[in-house]
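This section describes the prediction task in plain terms. A model, or a person checking by hand, is given the sequence of a single protein chain and must write out its three-dimensional structure as a string of tokens. No templates, partner chains or ligands are provided. The sample shown here is typical of the held-out split.
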Amino acid sequence: MSYVDDAFYRDLAAEFTDWRREDRRIGDPAQLESCRSVLHLEARLLDEGRFEDWLALFANECLFWVPGSPGGDPKREIAVAFDDRRQLEGRIYRLRTGYAWSQVPQSRTSRIVSNIEAFRDGSDAVCMVRSTFLTTEFRNGETRLFSGWNAHRLARDGSGWKILVKQINLIDCDQNLRNPSLLL
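The expected answer:
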């Protein structure tokens, strides 16, 4: 049974509303650095094609969400991606088979993650992290750019963090993206 149900959508809408408030900003340099390190590790793992290691950064019940419009509501609007863990595992499996034609040859990427800000979310065990990104993809003699901002919902896991939700907000999400087959 999938964990993405009406309650999941309701909680997602609540968690991704009004979280970037100055009174919730995390100023502790150590906690901000621990959040920053997760985002930089995630970018490196994706650039290196270490998709299984990337997926290990996510909680068992997680979401990878790319809205199809600015401020998109996934229950009412089409999303570029709205993948739970099972779908992410399937995506990685297909990439490893060699039959994911949209990735033959495989993309080479370089990611820049910056402007990282962290915000409290009711407890020290969960926080929201906002960052801007630029992903450069080279494939089949063509270079493409993807840019925007990410929202990561992180949960404390021992001494580190697990990703509960990654929301990728592309600046051109409502335009023709020509099959973004790579993991953003």
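For orientation: The domain at 6-170 is CATH 3.10.450.50 (Nuclear Transport Factor 2; Chain: A,).
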